[in-house]
Specification:
The complex is a heterodimer of chains A (373) and B (570). Chain A is of the alpha+beta class. Helix content of chain A is 18%, strand content 42%. Chain B folds into three domains: 197 residues, Heat Shock Protein 90, CATH 3.30.565.10; 123 residues, Ribosomal Protein S5, domain 2, CATH 3.30.230; 208 residues, Ribosomal Protein S8, Chain: A, domain 1, CATH 3.30.1370.100. Chain B has 15 helices and 22 strands. Chain B has an eight-stranded mixed sheet. In chain B, strands 9-10-13-11-12 form a five-stranded mixed sheet, sandwiched between helices. In chain B, helix 2 runs parallel beside helix 6, helix 10 crosses helix 13 and helix 10 crosses helix 14. Chain B starts with 8 loop residues before the first helix and ends in a 5-residue tail after the last helix. The chains are: A alpha+beta (373), B alpha+beta (570).
Chain lengths: 373, 570
């Protein structure tokens, strides 16, 4: 293998894929990327066996071939180098020689034959979805993914649940996440039917990487969802997440707005700011804010035994009796940040769950459980 | 024939004696008290190869006149009080008038004594309480009591004695105990003609404590003195790393009397809580001086039990003094090497550091240099982070030592303290779960959890029986993740089942378990900002030195020690 490539291109490509490598695995090769030539292109592949990616980069191929190289190691070097054309040559001593001007490196590589096979063959199957839809779904739900200690991996709660269904014969795709204390659900209508009504789980890391790719990519991209995988496809990049089948708590019943007799309408931004003030005061452990919802106002009370207390009144309109209830302000802040304009807060009583949705859009719903003394 | 008989005088005396004199060590105890009450400043004890066969105690106290000597061996005779009115304010060790007569009634005894100024002394010899011989004796000022053939007339009691080695150990314990309390008195013990103990008179308790407890305790003891609301407290606290598996090194004295009191022991344990590993007991010598009318010593003939009129005041004061001392951790400060410079307790107050940091002779040759780190203040945050070992141990340095800090234990302690504060301020709100987490338990486990449910609730975990032996977790402290709940509950149950959890301390143990689950694990890589945040958190919760289970947070290796390893120093 002997190629010449613009340093900046290589660095950008590596940055894209580096997140997909697995640094802590017992398989050292997963911390490497696979570089191989294909026609006039250099293809860089990375995988942690669940999420995989490949980027195609323009380069000058003098001699085709393949190698693996430690992703972060190479990237750290590239970051410090000046711009220019870089030449990468695999030598017989089992290393690659990297040359740029007067810089010469010899890096150890691993046998490319041992690199796990990445299968992108099904990228042309399944339902096409706009990347913005997936991004919005992730943004609206990511915060309520359970953050376990990592010791006891529960995919169900450490990922997002994706499910399809039909509402009034219009098919939809729904993403839900929960950490058992709150639940986020986002629904999008889709044009054509796809049946994953059994539901599948997208692991947290996959969500993060896909979101990063969407954010950094150009316009001409699309996503494909099939039963087993989610693909991200752009001109030079393909990424895939292996989806895991798993059960998710039954939530349809708790997010039905009919089940909530008390309705409060409040300006999301105003409430958000008030809550930020409260949470600046309360400590990590007694992280709670008391909400008193009444006819025309919502009053927030927060106190910290060591620092002091705060009371903030926010205008709101309400139907139903007054409610005095305590919540973790963090949970409210997370979902209120996703709402512009009015927010609708639905309650059952002072001990039951609370359902929040934007005033003008019931496709995004957040359920928050109260706290009690 | 009548079944109820009046017991003979002899039998009554044997029964009474049995309460006071249980073993050779009790004889030594009673006679030591007499010697101390007599104002002696030199007491020597000698025992034979079996302590019950021969005990001799001589003192240089005030001695007795001949008439008094005859009376002294009778029961309920004493020079220490005159009427029951004085019982309310006893200032001598003895007062019941039973000790000597009890000893005499179960042994063959010879007592010789001479008062100051008398030309000759006198002696009395008794057997089973009866006087067999009296006469004049040539002897120095003071009293010598020789007890032979203890329990010769009560074979049942004799059978209960342990091996001579054990009995001898008990005698040593008694002498050590009084020696701790009376540093000014010279004590010596000889067994089978060999010197076992020789304690020179000392000016203050700390020096005596080091002499009694052994050289291992050198520099590991700290004396505090507080005085409040009629109670004066002096405590010689040993560093928690000197803890023992038994309570032998917990010495408590009230008004100069050695006592075994639950209030004091539990106050000590409370003070040490969080500093000791389970089933370890601290080393401490505690002196409580309190108005004699505030305490009742006349509870039991051996006088080791007492009753405080206001136990909670004593409890609170002892516990908080120890806590403060431990928080202050005076052991780790460099001290003057010269023992003469060791502070006496009149100069030491609990809130004041004993020797200011870095002023020791050790450092005179060390160039003064500015702080290695910008962070000012706390014990931990003032040290410079120099690295992390195996992603588990944070390495810190200051001018004179290297510190190896356990990251998991440290974080655990921080979480524990915060959770405890939250609970004591009454606000550990629980976060309700959307769906209860169900935990299936074995029948034994279920019984355990049922019993401690209210305590678990106080820590913020709300449980509910779910039929059968399944338990539903309805709410958890907001700091916990629902993924942790299962393992926490099982962990708590297991600890209760193996008895690692003390029954009194369940709540604390539960908090510790929760804190442990919430803490960063060993092997997790922390970046520098996280490490600094952890150090600052540690200082914020009072710079503790041990994890909630009592394991130390760090090991300090002095630079001198390193220099010795590397042969830079002789």
């Amino acid at each position: 293998m002997d190629i010449k490539i613009e340093k900046f291109q290589l660095q950008k490509g590596l940055q894209k894929v580096q997140g997909f490598t697995e640094k802590r695995s017992t398989l050292p090769i997963l911390s490497h990327v696979l570089m191989e030539t294909n026609g006039g292109k250099l293809i860089i592949k990375a995988t942690d066996l669940h999420t995989s990616v490949q980027v195609k980069l323009v380069c000058e191929v003098k001699e085709p071939g393949a190698c693996t190289v430690h992703a972060k190691g190479l990237l750290d070097i590239l970051k410090e180098l000046p711009d220019g054309d870089i030449s990468i040559k695999r030598s017989d001593d089992g290393r690659i020689h990297i040359t740029l001007d007067r810089y010469r490196f010899k890096l150890n590589i691993m046998d490319p034959e041992e690199y796990p096979l990445i299968d992108f063959s099904k990228m042309d199957e399944g339902l096409i979805i706009a990347p913005d839809v997936i991004k919005s779904m992730i943004d609206n739900t990511f915060f309520s993914i359970s953050q376990g200690n990592g010791e006891e991996l529960k995919y169900t709660l450490e990922g997002a649940y994706l499910v399809t269904g039909k509402d009034d014969n219009i098919p939809y795709l729904e993403m839900a996440t929960t950490d058992a204390k709150r639940l986020s659900v986002v629904r999008y209508p889709i044009d054509q039917a796809l049946d994953i009504s059994g539901g599948i789980i997208i692991p947290r890391k996959g969500l993060q990487e896909i979101r990063r790719l969407i954010e950094t990519s150009d316009a001409d991209t699309y996503m494909r969802l099939s039963e087993g995988s989610l693909y991200f496809v752009s001109e030079d990049t393909v990424a895939t997440i292996r989806l895991i089948s798993g059960s998710f708590p039954e939530y349809a019943g708790v997010i039905k707005s009919e089940a909530y007799p008390i309705k409060i309408k409040i300006d999301a931004e105003e409430l958000l700011n008030a809550l930020k003030v409260c949470s600046a005061l309360v400590s990590e452990i007694s992280n709670s804010v008391r909400f008193v919802f009444s006819d025309k106002t919502t009053t927030l009370y927060a106190k910290d035994p060591e620092k002091g207390d705060v009371e903030i009144v926010v205008d709101s309109s309400q139907s139903g009796p007054d409610v005095d209830i305590t919540f973790n302000p963090r949970y409210f802040i997370d979902c209120l940040s996703m709402i512009s304009g009015d927010a609708l807060i639905l309650l059952k009583d002072s001990e039951g769950p609370c359902l929040i949705m934007p005033g003008d859009n019931s496709n995004r719903r957040w359920l928050i459980m109260p706290m009690r003394y | 024939m009548a079944r109820i008989r009046i017991l003979s005088r002899e039998t009554i005396e044997h029964i009474a004696a049995g309460e006071v004199i249980e073993r050779p060590a009790s004889v030594v105890k009673e006679l030591l008290e007499n010697a101390i009450d007599a104002g002696a400043d030199e007491i020597s004890v000698e025992i034979g190869s079996t302590p019950e066969a021969y005990i001799r105690i001589s003192d240089n106290g005030c001695g007795m006149e001949e008439d008094d000597l005859r009376l002294s061996v009778l029961s309920h005779t004493t020079s220490k009080i005159q009427s029951s009115n004085e019982l309310a304010s006893i200032s001598t060790l003895g007062f019941r008038g039973e000790a000597l007569s009890s000893i005499v009634s179960v042994s063959r005894t010879r007592i010789s004594t001479r008062i100051d100024g008398a030309s000759a002394g006198c002696f009395i010899r008794t057997e089973a309480g009866d006087i067999v011989e009296t006469g004049a004796a040539a002897q120095p000022r003071g009293t010598i009591v020789e007890v032979n053939d203890l329990f010769f007339n009560t074979p049942a009691r004799k059978k209960f004695l342990k091996t001579p080695a054990t009995e001898q150990r008990k005698v040593i314990e008694v002498i050590s105990t009084y020696a701790l309390c009376y540093p000014g008195i010279r004590f010596s013990l000889k067994a089978k003609g060999r010197d076992i103990l020789k304690l020179l008179p000392e000016k203050e308790h700390l020096a005596r404590a080091t002499a009694v407890l052994g050289s291992a305790f050198r520099k590991r003891l700290h004396l505090v003195h507080v005085k409040r609301a009629g109670i004066s407290l002096r405590a010689i606290v040993a560093s928690p790393d000197m803890a023992r598996a038994t309570r032998v090194y917990m010495y408590t004295f009230v008004n100069g009397r050695h006592v075994k009191d639950r209030v004091l022991t539990s106050a000590i344990m409370e003070g040490f809580r969080g500093h000791l590993v389970k089933k370890r007991y601290p080393c401490i010598v505690l002196f409580v001086d309190i108005d004699p009318s505030e305490v009742d010593v006349n509870v039991h003939p051996t006088k080791t039990q007492i009753r405080f009129r206001n136990p909670s005041a004593v409890f609170g004061m002892v516990a908080s003094t120890i806590k403060k001392t431990l928080a202050d951790y005076p052991w780790d400060r460099p001290r003057e090497l010269n023992p003469q410079d060791e502070p006496t307790y009149s100069a030491t107050e609990v809130s004041e550091p004993m020797v200011t940091y870095g002023m020791g002779k050790l450092h005179k040759t060390w160039p003064r240099q500015s702080r290695l780190t910008g962070v000012a203040g706390g014990f931990y945050s003032s040290k410079k982070v120099i690295g992390v070992l195996h992603s588990t141990y944070i390495l810190l340095q200051d001018r004179d030592a290297l510190y190896i800090l356990d990251q998991h234990a440290s974080h655990e302690r921080v979480n524990y303290e915060r959770l405890k504060t939250a609970i004591s301020s009454g606000s550990p709100e629980s976060q309700l779960l959307i769906e209860p987490v169900l935990i299936e338990l074995g029948p034994d486990e279920y019984r355990v959890i049922e019993k401690i449910m209210p305590l678990v609730l106080r820590a913020g975990i709300e449980l509910e029986p779910f039929g059968g032996t399944t338990i539903a977790v309805r709410a958890i402290p907001s700091m916990l993740s629902s993924a942790d709940v299962n393992s926490i509950i099982l962990d708590i149950i297991n600890k209760v089942m193996d008895g690692t959890h003390d029954t009194v301390d369940h709540l604390d143990d539960i908090i510790a378990t929760i804190a442990c689950h919430r803490s960063i694990t060993a092997g997790k890589k922390l970046d520098e900002t996280q490490i600094i945040a952890l150090l600052e958190d540690l200082d914020e919760v009072g710079s503790p030195r041990s994890c909630p289970h009592g394991r130390p947070l760090y090991k300090k290796i002095g630079i001198e020690e390193i220099e010795r390893w590397l042969a830079r120093r002789p």
